[in-house]
Amino acid sequence: MSEFSVRVDIVHTETKLGDTLCVLPLIMQMADEYAMAIHVAGAFAEPAKALLSRLPIRFAACNHSSAVNVRVDIQAAYNQGRGLNQHMAASICRLAGWPLPMLPITIDLSSAPARLPSGIVISPFSGSRNPWYKAWPLDRWLMVVRHFAASQGEPIYVVAASGENAVPFIHAGAIPLVGLGLPEVLDVMRQATLFASIDNGLSHLAHFGNVKRHLLLYPELLPPNLVMNPRAHVLRGRPEHIQAETVIAHIDTLLRTETGLMDRNMQPACSP
């Protein structure tokens, strides 16, 4: 008799961090149900693996046929999420035939000390092939950095992947954090007095990694729930319509509050 095992195969033309993190709630449900580690293959973002040391996930190939095989089609989940105004993580579970998770979702992701003073952390970059609908204009980001570099007695960090151009932010007064591993990035985000981002992989990391103070510039083109971080203070609109003064005002307000959080109740991962 062959050994019992469970396999999740992720299908997509890209391997993006946000998509990868949105599959984790399904994997964790399956691990709890079957009381075993889940074998994962396919379009799983390699940098995310460093976050998973405490999770029941394996990437080594199975030496036998799996008793349970689940195929996760990221594009199908995206399409369904848009149609139902439903979070990507919920669409992934729905298509696999599993219960929809409740938002917000906290996953036991691994962090590692970055040993940096806390400060304002921004994540302005997107790894999407077509980021035009979510990317906020560079000159407005620089206005925000200049304002807080001049008015706050704490560092302003810009998180960037290798190959992303953080030089303009240096000239504006920010400290670039380029090419850090995701466990260190998560630590920086958790220690931040405020984390500000567009919709990108790190906005999903803020959600699933339980980052407390997050300003999310959410693209108006997407349905409100599709890539939502329920813990975040959300500023939704077309990027070109969101002014730097508006973002500065929102950050100022959040920095003045005790927790930087909006008062939110637990909510389902899809609209009624």
Question: What does this entry show, briefly?
Answer:
This is Heptosyltransferase. This protein is 33% helix and 19% strand.
Structure description:
This is Heptosyltransferase. This protein has 272 residues and is α/β, with parallel strands linked by helices. It folds into two domains: 6-96, no CATH class; 120-263, Glycogen Phosphorylase B (Rossmann fold, 3-Layer(aba) Sandwich), CATH 3.40.50. The chain has helices spanning 17-34, 74-84, 88-96, 138-151, 167-172, 182-191, 201-208, 244-256; strands spanning 6-11, 38-42, 57-58, 68-73, 102-103, 120-123, 156-160, 175-178, 194-198, 214-219, 233-237, 267-268. It has a six-stranded parallel β-sheet with strand order 8-7-6-9-10-11, with helices on both faces. Strands 3-2-1-4 form a four-stranded parallel β-sheet. Strand 9, helix 7 and strand 10 (214-219) form a beta-alpha-beta unit. It is globular, with a radius of gyration of 19 Å. The model is unreliable at 259-272 (pLDDT under 50).
Q: What count of domains describes the coordinates?
A: 2
Terminal residue distance: 45 Å
Helix content: 25-40%
In the predicted model, the low-confidence regions spanning at least 5 consecutive residues are 259-272
Annotated CATH homologous superfamily of the largest domain: Glycogen Phosphorylase B
Per CATH, what is the topology of the largest domain?
Answer: Rossmann fold
Based on secondary structure, the structural category is: alpha/beta
Order of helices and strands: EHEEEHHEEHEHEHEHEEHE
How are strands sequenced across the largest beta sheet?
Answer: 8-7-6-9-10-11
